[in-house]
Amino acid sequence: MVLKEFREFALKGNVLDLAIAVVIGGAFGKIVSSLVNDIIMPIVGIITGGINFSHLHFVLKEGTEDIPAITFNYGSFIQNVVDFLIISISIFLFIKLINKFKREKKAEEPEPENPKVSDEVLLLQEIRDLLKSRQA
């Protein structure tokens, strides 16, 4: 019983669409991370004089032989903010592109000039007109 319900739930269109979106999103995230780490950040590093953001940190407490130093890693935060901004902009542009194609597709579909009216609708219209003429 539970297995049957789970199967019905898992095979619904929305769940499958969500699963596909998560997989594609993960792959897209890797591509954007590579774009940021391998292409954009080296250029930013050149502009800023060779600074590598991922290694920027403040030492809050010096380490000893047994205990590592406690650091405030603000460079990793900057890197993650840049990743987020690029991913956000990429997704925005992708959705904008999809919406543009949807609008173009809607514009291409002509509206039917004279949609065929069913016999039932014609009969109901005649009844309505007869009732209006009797009330007048």
Distance between the termini: 63 Å
Order of helices and strands: HHEEHH
CATH class: Mainly Alpha
- What fold name stands as the CATH topology? Non-ribosomal Peptide Synthetase Peptidyl Carrier Protein, Chain A
* Share of residues in strands: 5-15%
CATH architecture title: Orthogonal Bundle
Q: Measured on Cα atoms, how large is the radius of gyration?
A: 31 Å
The parts where pLDDT drops under 50 for at least 5 residues are none
**Mean pLDDT value:** 81
The CATH H-level superfamily is: Large-conductance mechanosensitive channel, MscL, domain 1
Strand element count: 2
Can you describe what's shown?
- The chain is mainly α.
- The chain has one domain (2-135): Large-conductance mechanosensitive channel, MscL, domain 1 (Non-ribosomal Peptide Synthetase Peptidyl Carrier Protein, Chain A, Orthogonal Bundle), CATH 1.10.1200.
- 71% of the residues lie in helices and 5% in strands.
- It contains 4 helices and 2 strands, in the order H-H-E-E-H-H.
- Strand 1 and strand 2 form a beta hairpin.
- Helix 2 packs across helix 3 (74-108).
- The protein is elongated, with a radius of gyration of 31 Å.
- It starts with a helix and ends with a helix.
- The mean pLDDT is 81.
